[in-house]
Amino acid sequence: MANIELTLIFPGLAPVLEQKINTSIIPTYLAKIISKASFKGNRIGLSRTLFNHFSNSELTGADLPIRVLESGCNNSLRADPCYLHADRDRLLLFTDDLALTHDESTELINEIQPLFEEFNGRLSQSNAENWVLNLDSMPNIDFSALVEVSGKGIENALPKGENQQDWIRLWNEVQMSLHNSELNQRRVDNHKLPINSIWFWGAGRFDLKLNTWTEVQGQSVLLKQLAEKSQCPLVSTTDYSVSRLSSGNTLWLADELDLEDDWLSQLEHFDESVLKPLWNQCRKAGVSKIEIQIPDFGSYKLAPMDCWKFWKS
After folding, report:
1. Fewest CB atoms within 10 A around its CB: which of 26, 160, 231, 290?
2. Closest C-alpha among 206, 253, 251 to residue 233
3. What single-letter DSSP state applies at residue 115?
4. What is the pLDDT of residues 75-91, one digit of tens each?
5. Which bin fits 296, alpha (ψ -120 to 50), beta or left (φ > 0)?
6. What is residue 182's predicted lDDT score, i.e. its pLDDT?
7. What are the residue ranges spanned by the domains of the chain?
């Protein structure tokens, strides 16, 4: 048996599999894998899944150490602009479709910068929608990763730890300042969402594992950062063909399923072009293990012997 192991991450598939009505239309080879493989459910999102694949220990805190990847700097946080929406008795946070420009970011940062002087903080932008707060020293505070809060209520994700009330006060002061911003009024007049808050996150460290993968493939900024940091070869193009697999461990990140478009056609194409040859290769023991990980859902592990379990249909 070839010593070839493949981990394939397929984001966007969770909502499809969670709907039982979709069971009858799942494409052939994905259906075969689902029926034959062993399944383990979990609710780990894509970003945390990627971090865990390059870490010696699983990340268990609420935050993700994105700043270490971006700059190697331990005395900084992300302070990303966002939109808070009041929904009955809670606040929902949104970061998509902000359409924020470089000039708008510069203007907003200049408006709220005085609020950070008490914390010896200096606010700047990596790009229009990613802001950074540089500090003289890091607070003993646990933050929550924006990518895991976006689209959800924030009530259980506020800063926790020493001097947490000072950071929540700062956060509230920023909101009040942004609420009164003339720029935000112009944005509303132009049918854009106001930037009425920021979100602190991205702190911490992780135990980086070097040379984890024989090959890494996928279109993701985070995946690229992790591969480079861990000295793993990253393929710049996406070629999910069996012929690429060689001895060792390979990590593939598929393009996210676009649920706003014809997701079934996308899934059928992936099934025929990627999953079919992988299934056939596994049946012939040309691959020793395939693991399909679906963020926010779970993972399916398939070995050659599993393909021949006739009692699993």
Report:
1. 231
2. 251
3. G
4. 899 999 999 999 888 99
5. left
6. 95
7. 4-59+210-308, 66-201
